[in-house]
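Before the break, one more example. Copy the sequence into your notebook; we will annotate it together after we see the structure.
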Amino acid sequence: MSKSIKAIIIISISLGAIFGIVGLSGSSDIQTLTQQAATKRDQADKVPAPDFTLKSLEGPNISLADYKGEKPVILDFWATWCPNCRRDMPVLSDLYEKYNGEVEVIAVNIQESESLVRNFVDSLGLKFKVVFDTDGAIARKYGITYTSTKVFIDINGVVQDTFPADVTDEDFQELLATEKENTTTEPQTPQT
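Here is what the structure looks like once it is written out:
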């Protein structure tokens, strides 16, 4: 028998054994294992948000650490030339005002001049904080490859999600729901 035929027979027997074991264990076990793997993957993806201190458009520096334990944060990495940013930032500003005090929004401008950014922000009447990532170092820390990328950070300073897309009301609600899930309550003592 040639080596290739022997290899095919060995592979066939191995696959048969694997499929036999899977077939015996039942599909619900496979679904359970798949769900457990997905949960572990999701938990593994939750990492502390890299801290930063950046100059703000309004003057003083802003540190991400200042919000830890206070409220969740949405970082929006953007540039004035980005058409998606131009479309999404007014929506983000409206949502920021709607959820005033519950979620902080920090727009991280990537490598543009203060005067260009100021004109852009003023023309749209944006209300949230704007900071300058003058050398792109913070964008690199967060692995940002596209402008108009949002990073959702929970109240504990843990990155919950990152996506290059427009933000919606549902996104704010999910972030707030995550905050409520992560908040521990004091145990109630029974009254007698």
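The helical segments are 3-25, 27-45, 83-98, 114-124, 137-141, 169-182. The two ends are 84 Å apart (CA to CA). Try to locate both features in your own notes.
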